[in-house]
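One record is given unchanged without comment:
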Amino acid sequence: MTNEELIAAIGEWAVDFERRIAELETGLDKRVQAMQKDLYDLVRDVLSVSLDVQEGRLKNGKRNVLKVAQLEDVFNRFERLRVHDELAGFSSELLSVAALTGSYFSLIGEPITEAMEETQADIIRSVIGVDPRGNIVTDGYLHRLGKSAEVRQFIRDFVVQSIVSARTLKELFEGLKNLIVGATDEDGALQKYWRLYAYDTYNQAHEIANLGIAAELDLQYFIYQGSIIQTSRKFCVKRAGKVFSKTEALTWKDDPDLIDPKTAASYNPFIERGRYNCRHFLNWISEDLAAHMRPELKKK
């Protein structure tokens, strides 16, 4: 395969990979939407029979406020009935993304061994918090994700505020539905939570395996890959489609266009790229191909 043919093949792989990640994110979003509808139904059913109402309004008092604690059982039941299975499927998807990484290295003529693949899978399992049998590890990433602590608190706070404000049951449930399920042009609570903490994990799982294999193969150059859309950050626009070395990437923490500059010291360009929810990814390449794409890299 000539350099030009290889570059074209890498481009095709990148398009397919980006499409696959988008499909996974879309599928996850649909499942999360379904989960939050179920959560709303559970919360509504419990509160509709437990809260005290007087003249059509919630009674403002200690008795009602204390009943909000019952929601903890609702959240735990929801976690057992709906979230646990979703986390199991999500972890499998993350490992499948890591497997796609191996297909890329085979494409560029750097086939990897089963041992290398298993090593990266072990690392990813450790990072996301599952054991080799697929069981979720207590206090690991997936376990904490499934607890949805922030969502629980938002819901409890809204119910307490509704009691203190003596809202009607209709106002309570309309507000809860907007909060949990969402409204027109407004995502629901679980969508916001999972988008913040989970959606980008597909790309991160890829980059963890990607970096590990590149290190095993001693590859020092990569293409900053991925399409540009209206919301692409300036940091990524400047780099998309271009070739960089590992050494160059280590200076990116000083780029004023990198978001969250206060945490630049902990920034890992090979995993985080343009940071949270970044759509871009790295295609590692040989020194020869890097020099072909960037002639100034050729040794004199």
Remarks:
- The CA atoms of residues 5 and 108 lie 11 Å apart.
- The chain is about 60% helix and 5% strand.
- Strands lie at 53-54, 57-58, 182-183, 186-187, 221-225, 243-245, 281-285.
- The first strand starts at residue 53 and ends at 54.
